[in-house]
Amino acid sequence: MGATSGQGRQAGGTPRAALADLLAGNRRFVSGQPAHGHDVTAAAAASGDQQPYAVVLGCIDSRVPLEAIFDQTFGAICVIRTGGHVLDRAVCGSIEYVVGQLGVPLVMVLGHERCGAVQATVEALRIGRRPGGSLAHLVDEIAPAVTEAGIDDPAVLPLAIRRHVRRTVHTLRRDDLLAGPVAVGRVAVVGGLYDLATGEVALLDPG
Ligand SMILES: [Zn+2]
């Protein structure tokens, strides 16, 4: 989730216009004339069995498209995205599937600077008001990282973003079906941070 509003041409437009844009993009892709670098021949090459080598859990932020920022072709990585890369049973089950059934050896949790989900959690804690609906789940899951970072710390946002990545990594390493493969070294769960300004991914705890 972005801390600032999107700059897409259809932001605030109609659903019909948004759908038309989306489908036009797919037609560019299929016709072999993509405007953003994807390759339809790669899709054809990967249309058989899949053998991905990593799964990346990231945020839904529209500025952080995971296949693009890692320059991965079709069939190379599995991608899961939720607001603030928050875990739930569907996310954990998906990762368990990829690791257990597809034999993927690497799980990366990727946070990013200026994350709107973490920012929203900071604001919710500051005013003491929990959002309604399922948004509450996101805030509840991110809140411990914000509290640990210190709600009154001027740098609470970047600090909480890093803590939240590390907490997510820690939770996944202890997951029922992941803990075993992690313990014997068949699977690694790592945390990373994406810099919106430079496009660079840095490992939070390299080595
Ligand atoms: Zn985010």
Tell me what you see in this structure.
By secondary structure, the chain is of the alpha/beta class. The protein has eight helices and five strands. Strands 2-1-3-4-5 form a five-stranded mixed beta sheet. Helix 5 (116-127) packs across helix 6 (135-149). It is globular and about 50 Å long. Zinc ion is lined by residues 1, 59, 61, 84, 112, 115-117. Zinc ion binds at residues 1, 59, 61, 84, 112, 115-117.
How would the blueprint of this fold be written?
Blueprint: H1 15-30, H2 40-45, E1 54-59, H3 66-69, E2 77-82, H4 89-101, E3 106-112, H5 116-127, H6 135-149, H7 156-173, H8 179-183, E4 188-194, E5 201-203
Parallel strand pairs: 1-2, 1-3, 3-4
Antiparallel strand pairs: 4-5
Helix pairs in contact: 5-6, 6-7
The structure holds zinc ion.
Q: Tell me the radius of gyration.
A: 18 Å
Lateral arrangement of strands in the main beta sheet:
2-1-3-4-5
Percentage of residues in helical conformation: 40-55%
Major pleated sheet:
5 strands, mixed
Oligomer: single chain
Distance between the termini: 29 Å
